[in-house]
Every structure is written in structure tokens, then in C-alpha cells.
Design brief:
Number of domains: 1
Number of strands: 2
Order of helices and strands: HHHHHHHEEHHHHHH
Structural class: mainly alpha
Number of helices: 13
Oligomer: single chain
Strand content: under 5%
Helix content: over 70%
Radius of gyration: 26 Å
Distance between the termini: 79 Å
Strand order of the largest sheet: 1-2
Largest sheet: 2 strands, antiparallel
Shape: globular
């Protein structure tokens, strides 16, 4: 594993080391200390910032997937109950043609996680080897030689060291800190997924097999992180919690500024724009009037523009 990840481990080590140098330059103490914790946060921020163009592409692809849901459901309905090879092949072909037509695919949302995985595992291996590098029984990893490794090994967060793992540490304090971070990591994963599912998906996208898969992932992903987190070094938990917080904030901004068509978030944005227009005394469109003054059931009221109301008065 280390042989395969060696180039990425080297890059991760240099980013951590360079970030640490920057933080000490602006006043944080050298040696063991908070600067090494911040270097992991910096690694996360650099990684996610580099992925912003991919995130934009992911948003566009995700919107395309939501728009094509009615057509996809029509294909599934057409071949419902048909299990012969010819029908399955035809359904698969029509589905792929539909994805091609809209320029998307169902795996586009997985790309950010897939691209982060090498960094995640490289950081995991760097931190796992810190103890051996500090002891002089492992070669240096990029700029992290024995003395630097000893500084990292001596860095702690509320009494837990960056290389501490819940399953192997003998420190009760370290285990408590790790459990808290695992809970934070799982909670931020859940709320990020829930925010996307509840606010930024049209009604059509919340039905069918794909919607069921997304609902399953809403609960499965936090559970996977909670179970696997006990095998992660503390530094990796810091990395993953930071990236989850970044994802949650980035997603919140995107949902509120560029919501998916037909989603509850889009309706909320249109209502907000209509209220602003009304407050400024601007004429409202019929759609904006209906958003602000929905017609009660059983009663049909024609929307009246604001300037026409003034003339009646």
C-alpha cells in the first residue's frame, strides 16, 4: 500500500510541512503544537479549493439527473415486469442514450469522494508511520524526518495525539476525544446529505429506485463513518470532519444561490425575490403574486398588480 501511495504521501507530507512553516511564520510556536493541527486543516482546504471546478461540474450533472427523472421513470415503467434479455438490453440502451442526451451519468456525484480517497489514504499512512519515523525505524516521508516526526508525535488535541487510534490507544482521554470527533464526522455527513435530499431535489427526484438509494445513503454513510472511524488516526478524523464542514457550507451556499429547478429551495428563493420586489414597490409578475398570495382552495382570485391596486384606492 505504501509503495502505491508513496508519491501522494510525499505531496501530503510537503503540504503539511509547508503549512506548518507558514503558521510558525505568522506567530504560532514551532515544534509540537497547534500549528501541526492547523496544517491538516490547511491540507483539507487546499484539497477542496482545488476541487471547486469539479464541484461546479457535479452540480450541473446533478441538476441534469434531476431534470431527466420523469423520462427515466417513463423508461422504467415501459419495461416494468419484462425480464427477458432483449427487454433488459433495450432498457439499458435507452437509459444510456438518455444520460448521453442530458450529458450526465448517475456516478457523477461520487467523483469528489473518489478523488479525495487517495489523499485520505495517503494522510492515513503518513500518520500511521509517524511513530516509526520518530523512532528512527522508518525512512523519512518527504520533509518529515525524525525530528519533525517527533514534533508531530508530540502534538495533541485535548490530550489526544494526532497518531492516536481508538482501537490501539491506551489513553482514556484520547478515546473520548476520538469518539467526539467520530460523532462530529458522522453528524456532519448526515446533515450534508439531508440538506441535499430535503431542500434541493424536486418531487420527481424523490421517487423511484434512485431516490430509494439516496435515502439509504442518507443513513448508511454516517453509520459507515461511525463504525470505521475507530480505526482512523486522530489526524485523519480532523481531516474528514473539516472536509465535511466545508462540504456542508459549500452546499448550503449553492442550494440557496443556485437551487435545482422544481426543488423546495428554488421555491424559497423565488419567494424571497418576490418579497424583495414587493418591498421595493416593483410590479410583481403573476407567478410572484401567486407565490406571495396563494389562492385558497375552492376560490379563484385573479392576481392584481401593485400599481393597479393603487389606482383602485
Amino acid at each position: 500500500m505504501d509503495a502505491i501511495l508513496a508519491p501522494i504521501m510525499w505531496v501530503v507530507a510537503w503540504i503539511m510541512y509547508g503549512s506548518h512553516q507558514f503558521f510558525t511564520l505568522i506567530g504560532f510556536p514551532d515544534g509540537p503544537g497547534v500549528a501541526w493541527i492547523l496544517s491538516i486543516v490547511a491540507l483539507t482546504v487546499m484539497m477542496r479549493a482545488a476541487m471547486i471546478p469539479l464541484f461546479v461540474k457535479q452540480i450541473r450533472s446533478s441538476r441534469a439527473m434531476q431534470i431527466l427523472q420523469p423520462e427515466l421513470q417513463a423508461i422504467q415503467k415501459r419495461y416494468k415486469g419484462k425480464s427477458d434479455p432483449a427487454s433488459r438490453e433495450a432498457m439499458s440502451r435507452e437509459t444510456m442514450d438518455l444520460y448521453k442526451k442530458h450529458g450526465t451519468n448517475p456516478f457523477s456525484s461520487c467523483m469528489p469522494i473518489l478523488l479525495q480517497s487517495p489523499i485520505f489514504f495517503a494522510l492515513f499512512r503518513v500518520l500511521a508511520n509517524i511513530t516509526n519515523v520518530a523512532a528512527g525505524t522508518h525512512d523519512a516521508i518527504g520533509p518529515i524526518h525524525q525530528q519533525v516526526a517527533q514534533d508531530i508525535e508530540g502534538t495533541s488535541l485535548f490530550g489526544a495525539h494526532l497518531s492516536d487510534v481508538f482501537m490501539t490507544t491506551g489513553s482514556t482521554t484520547a478515546r473520548v476525544v476520538i469518539i467526539v470527533l467520530i460523532v462530529l464526522m458522522s453528524a456532519t455527513t448526515f446533515f450534508t446529505q439531508r440538506q441535499l435530499t430535503m431542500k434541493n431535489m424536486p418531487k420527481a427526484a424523490l421517487e423511484g429506485p434512485q431516490a430509494n438509494m439516496q435515502k439509504m445513503m442518507l443513513y448508511a454513510m454516517p453509520l459507515i463513518f461511525a463504525v470505521s472511524g475507530v480505526n482512523f488516526p486522530l489526524g485523519v478524523l480532523i481531516y474528514w470532519t473539516t472536509t465535511n464542514v466545508w462540504s456542508m457550507g459549500q452546499q448550503f451556499y449553492t442550494i440557496n444561490r443556485m437551487p435545482a429547478p422544481g426543488s423546495p429551495a428554488e421555491k424559497a428563493l423565488l419567494e424571497k425575490k418576490a418579497r424583495k420586489a414587493a418591498a421595493k414597490g416593483k410590479d410583481l409578475t403573476e407567478e410572484q403574486e401567486l407565490l406571495l398570495n396563494p389562492t385558497p382552495r375552492g376560490q379563484r382570485t385573479q392576481p392584481v398588480r401593485k400599481n393597479r391596486r393603487k389606482k383602485k384606492g
